Structure formats: structure tokens, C-alpha cells
Amino acid sequence: MKATLIFLLLAQVSWAGPFQQRGLFDFMLEDEASGIGPEERVPEFGEMEPLGPVCPFRCQCHLRVVQCSDLGLDKVPSDLPPDTTLLDLQNNKITEIKNDDFKNLKDLHALILVNNKISKISPGAFTPLVKLERLYLSKNQLKELPEKMPKSLQELRVHENEITKVRKAVFNGLNEMIVIELGTNPLKSSGIENGAFQGMKKLSYIRIADTNITSIPQGLPPSLTELHLDNNKITKVDAASLKGLNNLAKLGLSFNSISSVENGSLANTPHLRELHLNNNKLLRVPGGLAEHKYIQVVYLHNNNISAVGANDFCPPGYNTKKASYSGVSLFSNPVQYWEIQPSTFRCVYVRSAIQLGNFK
Ligand SMILES: *[C@@H]1O[C@H](CO)[C@@H](O)[C@H](O)[C@H]1NC(C)=O
Ligand SMILES: *[C@@H]1O[C@H](CO)[C@@H](O)[C@H](O)[C@H]1NC(C)=O
Ligand SMILES: *[C@@H]1O[C@H](CO)[C@@H](O)[C@H](O)[C@H]1NC(C)=O
């Protein structure tokens, strides 16, 4: 039975995107440990259902996991077992989620609705799901995020929909939220309410890639460790929107139209380890790298940087606590590598970490 579980988990991870699942095994194992699955439980006298265990027609039910993917369903099956912990409805033709669709599923931890045709979710549809931790709605036709999502929610994926607005109210009280994926939606910066994500005290990962936003969202929570905003229309990195992000370790801003990084941006993210700014319009190396203690990866290739100063990357003295760089790229910029003084990279101990041209 472990083999079945692992198969399901792998199937799930394959479309989960770049974020590495961490907690999924834990919660499945927790489920396993929390009680004996329905199959192994010996029914007591008089408890036998006359119709046998419920499993919707053509779905597969095993260990409280209900698998109804790829069945051409146009609505949520009505006879779902009430003790279901994982419900997989991906790759169907469901168009709408109604208020009563999940009304008995108080043990549900994960709901997978990826790749359907959902354009409408009734406001109370998720209210009965008091234990829901993962809600996967990617590849649908939603124009808005669902209202009244369960307070227990930890992970929300709404990649590839038609969302134009992100309102603060939809995240109200979602204090357990850790991961939000909103990429590939027709979002503009004006569509994201200021401070929309601010109230979520455990939020660690946000990805809003492949949209039309033109600036970094304002009012991000200090708990954030990863912010992925690649392939948008962002024109500059403003220090103010990064203020207070003391835990930020990875910042992805590649494939935007960024021509400047405001002074103070790096000082506002003191624990940053990776900064991806490749494929932008930068004219110079961002300020503050030399003083930054932890930054190790700085991608600046495919920009418009025409000069690199001897103090752009490394502090003036040798005796500092700066972490060594493990990846710096500067190729495909107008600066010629022979114009860069060798001392520029004096704080880099692994020479192969620096990629200047076709030549390292
Ligand atoms: C961004 O805007 C352009 C022009 O309005 C549009 O064609 C494109 O589909 C938009 N991109 C996304 C991801 O919505
Ligand atoms: C940013 O900092 C650099 C170096 O400290 C300085 O030369 C430059 O004038 C500053 N730019 C602005 C806009 O303050
Ligand atoms: C690169 O920067 C120069 C100014 O230094 C500017 O004239 C040119 O248009 C820029 N090129 C691109 C592709 O942005």
C-alpha cells in the first residue's frame, strides 16, 4: 500500500511546478498513522453498509484517497466517501463548483481540480472543508480567486487561469498559508491590491511569473523566503517593496524590463542568497552587493551593462565575513571581459563560479 501512495505522490509532484514539495509525505504518513484505513477496519456487527463501501462510479478509492482523474466528468461526483482525505479530480471537464459539492468532506486535506473548465466557484463551496491544506486549481478558467477558503489552507495553486484581480479580502484569516502560486494569469500590477499578501504570517513562497505586472507587489509579509516574479513587465526594483523582507533567500526577476535596482534594495533583504536578474535592461551592476554578507548567486547575463567597477562585487578589504559567490554571470552584456579588472572578483574563491563570456 506504500507503493500506491508513493505512486500518487509522484504523479502529483510532476505537475506541481518548481516548488519542491516538502510536507506532502508527512501528511500522507500522518493519515496512515492516524488510524487504520477503511479497508482493513473490521466492521462491527450491524455496521455493514448494505450497498458496500461507497466509491463513486469509475473512481478508485483506496486508503481514503479518491482518484477520479481523466474520466470526462462534467461535475463533482455526488457520492464521495465522507472520510476522504485526498480527492483527485484533475483532467476532467468540470465547469462549476457548487455549494454542496464537498459538503461532507470534513477530513479532506488535499483537493486537486487541475485542468478542468471551472469558471465559477460558489462562495460557500469550500466552507465545509475544515481540514483542507492543499487546493490545486491550476489550468482552469477562473476570473477570480475563490472566496471563503478554509482557514487551514497551506498551499494554493491557481496557475494558468484568467485571474485579473487579487483582493486582500480573499486571504483574510488564512494564517496557515505557506505557498501561493499565481503564475500565467492576465494580471496587471493595478489588479493586485496593496498588501494583499501581508496578513499571512507564515507565507514563505509566492510565485507570480508570466503575467503583465509592472512592479513588485507592495506589502509582502516578512516571513517570505522565496519570491519568484520572472517573465513579467517589471521596470525597476524599488527598495520600498522589499523593505522588511528579512527572511528572503531567493528573488527571481529574470526576463523583465528592469533598467535599475534602487540603492537599498539589497540592504532591505539582508539574508538574500540568490538574485536572478538575467534578461533585463540593467545598465550597471546592482549596488550593495559588496556589502552584502550572504549573497552567493547573482545572475546578470543578457543585460545592457557596459562597465563593471572593481568594487561592484567585493568589499574593499580582504578580511570580511562575506560568503563566497558560487555563481555570477555577466555574459551577453556590452562590457568586454578583458575590461574587467582581475581584482573585481577578489572575494571569490572558486574561479569557475564566475561566468563572464563563453570564457570563464
Ligand atoms: C499581457 O498583455 C498583452 C497585451 O495586452 C496580452 O496580449 C497578453 O496576453 C498579456 N499576458 C498575459 C499573461 O495575460
Ligand atoms: C547609489 O549608490 C552608489 C554607490 O554607493 C552611488 O554612487 C549612487 O549615486 C547612488 N544612487 C542613488 C540614486 O542614490
Ligand atoms: C543600452 O544602453 C544604452 C545607453 O548606455 C542605450 O543607448 C541603448 O539603447 C541600450 N540598449 C538596449 C538594448 O536597451
UniProtKB/TrEMBL annotation:
Disulfide bonds join 55-61, 59-68, 314-347. Transmembrane segments: none annotated. Residues 1-16 form the signal peptide. Keywords: Disulfide bond, Extracellular matrix, Glycoprotein, Leucine-rich repeat, Proteoglycan, Repeat, Secreted, Signal. Residues 54-86 form the LRRNT domain. It is found in: Secreted, Extracellular space, Extracellular matrix. Coiled coil: none annotated. The keyword Nuclease does not apply. GO terms for molecular function: extracellular matrix binding; glycosaminoglycan binding. GO terms for cellular component: extracellular space. One of its GO terms (biological process) is negative regulation of angiogenesis. Binds to type I and type II collagen, fibronectin and TGF-beta. Forms a ternary complex with MFAP2 and ELN. Interacts with DPT. May affect the rate of fibrils formation. Belongs to the small leucine-rich proteoglycan (SLRP) family. SLRP class I subfamily. This is Decorin. It comes from Ictidomys tridecemlineatus (Thirteen-lined ground squirrel). The lineage of its organism: Eukaryota, Metazoa, Chordata, Craniata, Vertebrata.
